Amino acid sequence: MLLIGIIGPRSGLTGFARPVQSSGWMAFALRRSWQGGGICRARNVVPWRCFAQAARAAVSRNERRRRAKEAASGGEKRLEIPERLIIYHAGMGRVAFLAMVKLTSLLLGAFFGLLVVPSYVMAEKPVAQTAAVAAAGMVPILFIAYTTAPFVTHIHVHLPPGARTSRAVLERFVGAMPASSRLTFTTMSLIAKPRYSSVAVGDLRVVRGRRFGLVNYVRDTKAENATRKWYMYRAVGGFHVQEGRVEGKRYGRKAKVDGWIWDAVREKVGGEGR
């Protein structure tokens, strides 16, 4: 049958001739499409990529940490109140003046200690005069450092997440503030650098007449000093906070001083609540 079909007349195989012609036309169209940029392009279809995709840009370690931190803090963005609120500010004028006094005393001591005293020694002045000049440079530094160390420039309160959902919840938390609530007292070092002291509300005590009357709040620092090296600063145990009600003035451009929280804390620790 196969032999008869092959050698038979073409008129009897008209039904099979058309596929042969159509297959030749398809081969021609296929060849033209490959020459013109691919069969996918001939059919107006986006061609498949037969090569590997370009490698993604490398992400640095800091960028990964930043993304992880943003993902971890995503829940905190829904909270209305920040985690740390400023509840006391001594005033920009007082803080700037105190910093200027500290730096001036340092410059004065450096002038006497590095210029005047060596000149007295080279001139073979009496020992009493040389000692007096050296004391004139050192006494102001020691006096300023002793009397201004307790001065508090800022006080911040650290709030738990449950107290940050709304203003009403914050007021209820402040009204029944636990003794374990943390406060951060900011003072200034000898070179006018901020020093931060983390204090629990229950550790504060009110005193009178301490350090020429310049200290009105104290805390126990024995446990904290025991963990510090001998060459480190001792923990600040006395603080001077101005008496009276703290006004709700602006601190910087955005933050507002929530003085009513400090008033509640002062009443809790036994200070004057006005």
Count, helices = 9
Residues in helices, as a percent range = 40-55%
SSE sequence, one letter per element = HHHHEHHEHEEEEHEEEH
Q: Quote the distance from N terminus to C terminus.
A: 118 Å
Structural class: alpha+beta
Spatial order of the strands forming the largest sheet: 1-2-3-4
Find the count of extended strands (DSSP E, 2+ residues): 9
Keywords: Membrane, Transmembrane, Transmembrane helix
Transmembrane segments: 95-121, 127-146
Notes on the structure:
The protein is of the alpha+beta class. It has a domain at 84-91 and 150-269. Helix content is 45%, strand content 15%. The strands form 3 sheets. Strands 1-2-3-4 form a 4-stranded antiparallel β-sheet, with helices on one face. A hairpin with a 3-residue loop joins strand 8 and strand 9. Helix 5 runs antiparallel to helix 6 (127-148). The longest helix has 31 residues, at 92-122. It is extended.
Topology overview:
Layout (H helix, E strand, L loop, with lengths): L1 H6 L6 H22 L3 H4 L18 H12 L11 E6 L2 H31 L4 H22 L5 E5 L8 H9 L6 E7 L5 E7 L4 E6 L4 E4 L3 H5 L11 E2 L10 E2 L3 E2 L2 H11 L5
Antiparallel strand pairs: 1-2, 2-3, 3-4, 5-6, 6-7, 8-9
Helix pairs in contact: 5-6
Keywords: Membrane, Transmembrane, Transmembrane helix
